[in-house]
Structure prediction request, 681 residues.
Amino acid sequence: MPDSEQHRSLMLVEENVKHLHHIDGPVAVVAVVGKFHSGKSFLLNQLMGKQSGFGIGPSVQPHTMGIWMWGKPATMTLAGGQTVSVIFLDTEGFAATNISETYDAKIFSVATLLSSYLVFNSVKIIDQGDIDYLELLARRTRLFALRSQMSKAKWVDDFNHDLLTFPPLLWIVQDFVQMTVDDETPQQWLHRLMGSKSSRDSEEHEISLLGIFDSVDCHTLFIPAVQKHLLQDLSQAQEEDLTTDYKLDRDALFQKLQSKLRPKEKNSRTISGAELASLLRLLVAAANEGSLSTIPGRWRVFIDGLKESARGDCLVFYDAEMSIIYSKYEEGPINATKLQLWHASAANRTVALLEQLLFGLDDVINVSLVGLQKDMTDRFVKAQDVNQKKIQIKCTEVQRRMEVEAESWLDQIVLPVLTSELEQRYREIRSDIVEKFRSGLSELHDSDYFLTSLDQLQNSLGNIHDTFLLKNRQALEKLLEKARDSAIGYFRDNSRNVDRIPRLEAELQRVLNGAELEAFAVYEREGSQANEESLFPAYYSMVKTGISQLKQMLVEENLQLVHSACEGTASELVRKFRGNTGPSRIALPLNETDLNKKLEVELDLMLSEYSQINGPFSSTDEYKDVIKTLKSRLLLVCEERHKDNVEAYTKEVRVPLETARKIILLSADRYDTAFSVRQYV
Prediction:
């Protein structure tokens, strides 16, 4: 019996339980379960052959409460010849108003595990919902049976494996007037339905009732009566009031029950009424202690399913809402603030959707909302992380592109140019590049990666600037080097003494100064592109130094030519002097006075001629040095002429002197003293 009108637990009626102890032999239990007002009590009365057995309620309110047992067991001889006491159990109907599913599960579990033959009763048709609900109750019962035994110490050493083996199931369809498909038997019809996919959301799992119960059979019963007042209260129907087809179906059902009924067993041994009472106490106590309450009921399963489904649908909705902004930005980076605002908006709409999907289930909404918000937060954190990576990649990509573009623009400048012009062009390019960088990443200005990339871009542009300044300086240096070399080359070519004739100093200075002026003009003309550079004066100084060195060389070269010319003149004059003072021109011997006069005249003529020829260079040291040398050389010639004159004199006086010497020698004996000899000579 239920504990109260709340129908939360079961209570044993001890007085009635005592009747079970009076049953000594084997006992079989037939329990009928099913929805309320489906004809269970009337069916049991028919099986027991009683018109007024279990109470039948004519109103819409359920009549049977809890599990009812007919007081005196029926005696039945089974197909094998065994005589057993048959206890018929009538149960409170399922799905009654204000009755919890857990209570239905308690009724079903106790009745199923207590019985040796289970009858499931339905009306007119086998409904898919009934199949699903029966499977749900059967699964809960298996779990309940296992937990019940595991929680009872007295069953540890004597584990009742039969509790986990369900009795045969007979599905009875009352008021059945339809025809089966292709002349199927009721059993084939039921097996086909049970072998099909479930109508539940989880269509991956097949119905497993055929594997849960020991055997599954089906039997149909025609409408028991045709009169309205009898159908409203079948307890008033007499045997003769029942339809013929119904009675035939009922009798066939009784025979089927008699042929298939087996006594209740425990570990392959039949149990007595006392053992059945003990099992009943165990099952009721276990049901009341919460073994079933921890197993989720169909409503809880539905609520959990609805909660998960709603949560899943909301996440799909959230993802779809977020995909809009992703598509808008073509899966590229998004401004972090805009992404945050979009997420907040999408999250608010998602929460609103959850509240609509779970309308009226405030507790479920609160629980689901926590999980949903966590899921959305987790998704958004991942989205933020991915977006930050996209921002970093985008900033780096634009930065690299801008660097290449800046370098390309600078490459278009034909070097060399004035540094000021290059600086001006660089500033323009830098301004354009930075603006394009900002414009290309206009949505990402508040990102740290943007600021970092902008700083890196500016540093890179500075490095590119330095590189091009260096290239331009090198080009300017080449330009100025070329201009310098051209200027010095021009000076060299235009100041060169091709004829190797010494130049007068004034003429030389005129040539050198003119070539120098033109050389500087060449430098300024060819180096005009760099005339504002700091390098220009430096290379100008190089030109000046180079020309100065060349001028010095040319002056020295000209002095060498002067010296050579003077030397040549001197040598020629010495040769001429020799000729003019030779034997062909001055007859020797000649007295010294005359000879000196003649030599002096010729010497003066030579010196005068030297002065006439090289007079323009008389101011040079070379001229003076050579004329000194010339005088020395002429004097040497004069000395030679004096020697020649002496020799000529010697030849003239040699014979007379020899004759005199001989005379003196012949007359020497005439003189006594040296003085007398000298007097003679």
The chain has a mean pLDDT of 83. The first helix runs from residue 14 to 21. The beta strands are 27-34, 67-69, 74-77, 83-91, 117-123, 169-174, 216-220.
